[in-house]
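Researcher: I'm comparing several assemblies side by side, and this is the next one on my list. It has 562 residues spread over two chains. Same procedure as the others: predict the full complex and return the structure.
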Amino acid sequence: MENPSSSNIEKLQQDCYHEWMRLQAKRMTDLKQALTNGEKNDDELRELIETVIGEFKDYAGKRSEQSRRYSSNYFAPTWNTCLENALLWMGGCRPSSFIRLVYAMCGSQTELRLANFLRNDNLDGLSMALGETPGLDEAGESMSDLTPEQLYKINELHLKTVQEENKLSKQAATLQEDTADMPIALAAFYKEEIGEADVEVESALDKYEANMARILTEADKLRLTTLTQVVEILTVVQAVDFLLAGKKLHLSMHEWGRLREHRRLESCGGGGDPGGEFSGG
Amino acid sequence: MENPSSSNIEKLQQDCYHEWMRLQAKRMTDLKQALTNGEKNDDELRELIETVIGEFKDYAGKRSEQSRRYSSNYFAPTWNTCLENALLWMGGCRPSSFIRLVYAMCGSQTELRLANFLRNDNLDGLSMALGETPGLDEAGESMSDLTPEQLYKINELHLKTVQEENKLSKQAATLQEDTADMPIALAAFYKEEIGEADVEVESALDKYEANMARILTEADKLRLTTLTQVVEILTVVQAVDFLLAGKKLHLSMHEWGRLREHRRLESCGGGGDPGGEFSGG
């Protein structure tokens, strides 16, 4: 259909999100399985990584398609929790948070390894401290093996990503400021009735939404590029660990947000379903 | 009460907003009245301006008080329309948009005056073009009389305000990135169950909300300072025109957002009340 009605678009946006979250939960299980099975076949792991990234690309494509007319929904989606919306940057996570996640995983694993070494002052402990782990089957463990070269590349990517984020933030700021200018501000001033319809205002607001849709698409592109580049810097096992951590963080934040909201409602008798949507084992 | 329950806080936040919007509608009428009555008594106008600014200060104070524990609500409030939330910067309008509004008003009035001059090549037209209007009782007209000195000061304020906005945006970006770090990201990674409760995560999320509350308070302070400084640069009649334009823009945007949402729901049989909340004549 060339021109789906607006109600269809709103429904499509929401369905698209729920479908995406279901897929996230499924892929989380797949990634975990691949690691705990101790799959050493790099080709298989690589295939899984490509699938995961391809799915993100498809999702971004759908969002771009669906936001073209009604982009406002994406900047504080009703399907998100308050907590998630307070964390939102251009309709999603900050691309730079992917990199922070790499640092967090790397730092924690190095700490863990050091703690193990100090606890067991024997050869096993030493070999662990030197990264000579026998099977790499502990979740996340691969991240402590980041080489100085990898860390350098990750840092370069961080700086570049923050710059790109700032560019998009600036564009959005200008668009936001523009709404306090002609024709919107003036129409508001000269109308006798508040909210009186006005063709020029409607067209200016449509244009604002279209411009914000363009920025949303750019932001999704930046998220995709950053994700792809992080994965390219990592080894395949590290990439699987990293993608798993990302999916778990996203799904957990949604659930923690729900729990916090539930707790607030509970105390005034509102209730709701405290059971998680995506609580995979 | 030292520790009102969270449900009370949520209700208070919403009530506080509705009370504020009612007050906006009332003050809009008062400001309009003061202008159309052609009140030349600067003291009376000045008193009205002080009242309006004082009320904004009170509102900011209440928000600061009420956001201390649950600030997430303010970053994409459920009481706003999607359109308003897509325009939000730190729980409100961009302080720099106050300045854009001054420029918009000034530019449109100058255009109007020039058009009048070109239309009536007589003495009346000439005197209007020279700003020698007899009564200044046309809404907004005072804004075309901004002196070069006033415009210079407004421009200085614009630059300073954008710098302050950027500082706060940067602080919020850092806080957002931090949630992809320890302890939140790691707890998410090592939990077997998605969304499993965790004292350390809860405390980190509480800290995040408290930090965002601090930024919200800073942003409200910046909005207040900018508003106050714009008013100080303007003459009293200009200030009344400007405050009236600001209130009309805020109230209109809320109504236009409602109308756009209604139109989307209408097409799928949802309905709702298309009548405005604050449609003052």
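Model: For your comparison table: The longest helix of chain B spans residues 199-233.
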